[in-house]
Amino acid sequence: MRKAYELGWANACSFGGCRPSLVAVDDILFQKPVEIGSLLMLSSQVCYTQGKYIQVRVHSEVFDPLTQQHSTTNIFHYTFTSDRDVPSIVPKTYGESMLYLDGKRHFNQTVES
Predict the structure, then answer these.
(1) Which phi and psi angles does 81 have, rounded to 5°?
(2) Is the pTM of this model over 0.85?
(3) Residues 26-55: pLDDT tens digits?
């Protein structure tokens, strides 16, 4: 969980151009356990922005080198705020559009709470 947060923070920092502050962590769903010694692969995307807010999605998966299989273990959603307005996200593909809509939904749930 800490590595996912650090990756999400670094991505928000890179995208926003300054050190972001964490506003919210959305529900964390553990889909599969991560065994000790597993090869854990993390990827992070800025999926939605609004004003000074940055919504980041971190995808966590385990890689099994024997079977060459990847298995999703967790998906984390973090909301950060920046000191300045951040660029808007413009999805270019269907996949990016789906991530954008999912990020917007998570952001709206955070703001309503």
Answers:
(1) -125, 145
(2) yes
(3) 877 788 888 887 899 999 999 999 999 999
SS (H, E, C) 27-77: CCEECCCCCCCCEEEEEEEEEEEECCEEEEEEEEEEEECCCCEEEEEEEEE
Q: Is 110 helix (H, G, I), strand (E, B) or coil?
A: helix
Distance from C-alpha of 79 to C-alpha of 90, rounded to nearest angstrom: 18
Task: Decide if 43 contacts 58 (C-beta within 8 A).
Answer: yes
Q: In the chain, what is the straight-line distance between the N-terminal and C-terminal CA atoms, in Å?
A: 23
| Nearest C-alpha neighbor of 7 from the set 53, 43, 54 | 43
State both tokens at 32. 């599969």
Q: Is the CB of residue 64 less than 8 Å from the CB of residue 56?
A: no
